[in-house]
Each structure stands twice: as C-alpha cells, then as structure tokens.
Amino acid sequence: MQTRSFSIKSLVVVAGFTALFLLPFINKAFHIDDTLFLWCAKQIQAHPFDFFGFTANWNGVERPMYQINQNPPLVSYYIALVASFVGWNEIVLHIAFLVPAICLSIGIYLLALFFCPMALLAAMIAVATPAFIVSATNVMCDILMVSFYVWAAVFWLYGMEKGRTLFFFIASLLIALSALTKYFGISMVPLLLVYTVMQKRGFDARLFFLTIPIFVMLGYQWLTLTLYDTSLLSNAVSYALERGIADSSSKIITKTMVGLSFCGGCLAVILFYSHMLWSRFFLIGGAVLLTFLTAVFVIMDSFSGNLVIDVSLDPKIVIIQFFLFVLIGSQIIFLAAADVYKNKDSKSVFLFLWVLGTFFFSSHVNWTINARTILPMIPAVGILVARRLNDRYELSGPENIRRVLWPLIPGAFIALAVSWGDASLANCQRSIAQNIHSHLKDYQYNVWFQGHWGFQYYMQLYNLKSLDYRNSLIGIGDIIIIPKTNTGQLKLPLDQFTFVKKLECDPLKWAGTMSKKNSAGFYSDTKGKLFLPFVFGDIEAEEYYVFIVGKFKNPEQYIKKLEGDI
Questions:
Q1: What is the three-class DSSP state of 55?
Q2: Quick one: angle between helices 315-343 and 378-392, nearest 10?
C-alpha cells in the first residue's frame, strides 16, 4: 500500500478552514443535550469516580442520571478538565471544543491520503456540511467520538503500511476512547476487521489488537454494574433496540425515507457536486424516478398518519426540500455502491460498509433519526466524492482544481445558515432565561418551569425550579413558565391556573433546525413526524407562556415585575 506524503500546508489549510466555520459561534448558548454533559462534568469535578451518581429532572420526573444519559462519560471528563482551569463560560468551552473538531478535520485529510489524490478536497467537503458545523458548535460527545474514530482508522492503516505494531496498539486504544465517548465508536472494530482480512487475503495476527477495545467496554460494563447496580452499555443497547428496531418493523419505508432525508440534508454540499459525479442521463432518470417514488410515498404515508404534512409553510415548499434531501441521500448510497462496483477492493468495501452501516444504524437501530447519528459517515462520504471526481476528471490542472472547489461555496453557505439558525435558537433560550431571572429574582413565591434542553440549564443556573410532575409542591401565587417548543411538558389544568402573558424571542427567521410547525428535527425526528433535518422558510418565534397558580381576575397586579416586556 502506497500513500502520498502529507503536506504541512494542507494541514494548515484544513485546520484554518475548520476554525473559520466555527469561530463565529464560540458564544453560542448551551443547547439541547449539552446540558446533560455539563451536569455530568460538574459531578465529575466533585466526585471523579462517580460520574453518574446524581439525579436530575430531564423528562418531568427526577431520576438517576444513569437512567437518563445513554452515552458514556468521556466527553464530560474532558469538559470537567477544561472547566477546572477556565471555568464554565460558553466561549472558553466552545474554544476547547475547537480542538477535537480541528483534529477530526485533519484526521479526515490524513485518512483520505490512503484512498485518493485529492485528500484536501475530501476533508473540506466533510467540514462544509451542516452536520459537522452544527455538531462542532455544541459541547456534546459526537465530534470527539468521530475524531477518535477517524484517527483510529488512520493509525491502523499506517500500521499496515509501515508494519509498525505500535500503530496497531494506538489504533485499538483510540477505538476504545471513541466507544467511551459514544458507544457507536466500537463499530470501527468490524470495519477494520473486514478491511484487514480483505487486504491481507486472510487472517492476520495483529487483528488480536481489535480485542482491546472490546475488553475495555466489557470493563466499563463491569464498572457501571459495580457503581450503579446496572450495566449501562447493555441498557443503551436495549434502549436502542426497543425504541428503534422494534419500531422499524412497522415503519421500515418511512424510516428509510426519513433516514435518506437526514442523510442528504446533513451532507447538503453533495447536491452541488451532482453534475460532476454522474452522467446527465443518470441524473435525469434518477430524478424522475425519485420524484415519482417520493410523491407516492408522501401520499401513502400521509394517509397512514406517519408524516405530518400540516405545516405552517406552504406544504409544497416543505415537500420540495424533502425531495431534495432524499435525492442527495440516495446519491450518497449510490456513490458508495458505485465505488465497490468499480474497484472491488478492500478500500471500496471499507467505505461502503462505513456509509451503509452508519445509515442503517441511524435509520433503523437508533431510537431516533437525527443529524448526530449521521455525522460518523461524513469522513467516508467526503473521501468517496473525492475518489469519484478523481476517476471522472483530470484534477492536476489549476482550472480543474477550481472546478471541484467552487461547489464548496454554496455548500458552505447552507452549512453556515443552518448553524446560524441553530445558534439563534439556542441563544433565544438563554436570553429568555436571563430575562425571566432579571424580572423575577425578587418574586416572593416560587418560580417553576417546564421544558428541558439548554433552556433548563440556564433556568436552573439562576436557581429557578424545574417542575417535577410527581413531587413538586406548588402553591397559590407560584409562577410556572411553559415553553411552546420544547420537550417533557405536561398540560396544566387551566381551571386551577391563570394565564398572565406570553413571552417571545425570535430566532433566525428563514432557517431552523428544530421547527415542529415545519417538520424540522435536527436533533430528533420524533418517530418520523419531523422528516427534515432543517428547513428554509418562515421559522416560528420561540414562545413562553406565563401562568400563576390560582384564579385571579388581574394577575398582573400580583406579579408587577412582568409588566414590562421580557
């Protein structure tokens, strides 16, 4: 196996390209599941060997954290380490998360050197995607997991080329670290197993290194059983199987189509390479066929009630976006298959299994389809696009280099727009929490709230109380804040409460990642009801309803602090 030597200049370009996308979002509010990882990090600072040893109200009821968080704790250890030096400020933590993001983009470049001459292009395509940029602007586990994942493949392949046993050992440790960040990381074991057997045309004794991450995860299983009297790895697998595969049996077509939509949207840059990847006949024929199949699917599935077409935007606009995303997602699957058909070697099979395995897990195994589960396929897709372009064009001349770079511009614009929309949503929740606190910090009764995600993080940061549906004791005069677009909420018996006012905050109006009205669910498809990873259109305002416990004719008199706009 021969690889091209890497270029320091290319490494700098990749790192700079990544930082250029992420630096505008370093003051983004903590968002969605960031809250869980931050809570665990604070627990680790106080009790380093008892990472899940506390309770939290995440779904309306106080429960042990080991029942809530379905991910291992390594990223929380990283947050705890960073925060012990620089504190919990959003800016410094987002800067700290630039490190794994840049490491991931450099890792993609180094990995691509084994597969195609245009390794730099492969890395840039992977970075210029909504899934990469949005994920890298959060402090969740996904970017760190995929970084370990890609670097494990890099060291393993370099180990095979150089015959260095140490590289195999390092690769196995990186797989273990990936799996301890997010359980999906263990899937690199079968990928490298198949690749090595095909490459060596038989068994290689160095495959025994792949047992190291397996034993590490068995050790983690034993540790959590000892600490919490339950096996968290087994629980996570059971959780996925019960809510993912069990549901797939009855909705396999819906989940496949929604999976393709998320796959295509998360890698929207591929749309602008379509004319270079396929012949005109293939594109026209594929588009016509897919238009027909999508129309049939939408009509039939809407009758069965799986898709919710009752959206605030013109339904045709939403369906067009759905069709485009499915078209891109289908191209990605065909791209992996076409590479196997053409090359029929260990490299093409490795990439094919990487893409198809991730797609199947995201669409049919995981409990929900979301962009975070699509993210691991991005390195392989970037490499596949670069390989395909290299096969179809002579890429050595400056003119052709520019030809393959210009599609990055509209792709990057989409990725940045989606990230901007997501950041504005997160910032709205922080802003609302800050303003509620500033107006009600001296209120004489309790202030409760429903809802979770980043909104909960900031509300509890100001010592406001999360409503526990079983145990909270509320009294006359207490206030309850209810967000309209959130999770874990319960309708109030209106005969016992008085509505006071509605608070609003406008996120970006033309691009959104979480919009129930427009079927966008970047972080969860909610069982196929949100069938777009993001949407371009009229995004609804964030609305928060203020109630006071008891029946009052003029409730504003009792909470004069709310007379001004929050």
A1: strand
A2: 70
List of long-range contacts for 441-446, beta carbons under 8 Å, 24+ apart: 442/561, 443/479, 443/559, 443/561, 444/477, 445/475, 445/477, 445/478, 445/479, 446/474, 446/475, 446/478, 446/479
The Cα 546–Cα 501 span in angstroms is: 5
182 exposure class (CB count in 10 Å sphere: 0-12, 13-18, 19+): buried
Q: Could you give the CA distance from residue 208 to residue 486 in angstroms, rounded to a whole number?
A: 47
d(CA 391, CA 152): 27
pLDDT for 153-193, tens place per residue? Answer: 999 999 988 888 899 999 999 999 999 999 999 999 999 99
Entry pTM:
0.91
Please choose, from the candidates 444, 385, 452, the residue with its C-alpha nearest in 3D space to the C-alpha of residue 116. 385
Phi and psi at 243, nearest 5°, equal: -100, -15
CB 496 within 8 Å of CB 547: no
DSSP code of residue 367: S
Tokens standing for residue 369: 């389809």
Least confident of 157-166, 400-409, 441-450: 400-409
DSSP SS3 for 146: helix
Counting Cα atoms < 13 Å in the Cβ hemisphere of 303 gives 5
What single-letter amino acid sits at 83?
A
> How many other β-carbons are positioned within 10 Å of the β-carbon of residue 10?
17
Instruction: Determine the residue type at 129.
Output: T
Weakest mean pLDDT among 124-138, 216-230, 527-541: 527-541
For 227-256, the DSSP string reads: HHSS-HHHHHHHHHIIIIIHHHTT-HHHHH
Q: Return d(Cα 313, Cα 515) in angstroms, integer.
A: 11
Q: What is the 3-state secondary structure (H, E, C) of 395-458?
A: CCCHHHHHHHHCCHHHHHHHHHHHHHHHHHHHHHHHHHHHHHHHHHCCCCCCEEECCCHHHHHH
Dump the DSSP string for 479-545: EEEEESS-SS-----GGGEEEEEEEEE---SSEESEEGGGTEETT--TTTTS-BSSEES-PPPEEEE
In what helix (H) or strand (E) does residue 549 lie, and over which residues does it extend?
Answer: strand 542-549
The helix (H) or strand (E) run that includes residue 62 is strand 62-64
Q: Identify whether the C-beta of residue 79 lies closer than 8 Å to the C-beta of residue 139.
A: yes
CA 370 to chain CA centroid, Å, is 6
Helix axes 232-240, 211-228, angle to 10 degrees: 100
pLDDT bucket at 397, cuts 50 / 70 / 90: low
- Residues in contact with 12: Cβ distance below 8 Å, sequence separation at least 6, in sequence order: none
User: How far apart, in Å, are the Cα atoms of 210 and each of 87, 205, 492?
Assistant: 37, 10, 53
Q: CA-based diameter of the chain, in Å?
A: 81
461's tokens: 């940061």
H helix or E strand, kind and range, residue 13: helix 8-22
- 73 C-beta neighbours (distance < 10 Å), count: 25
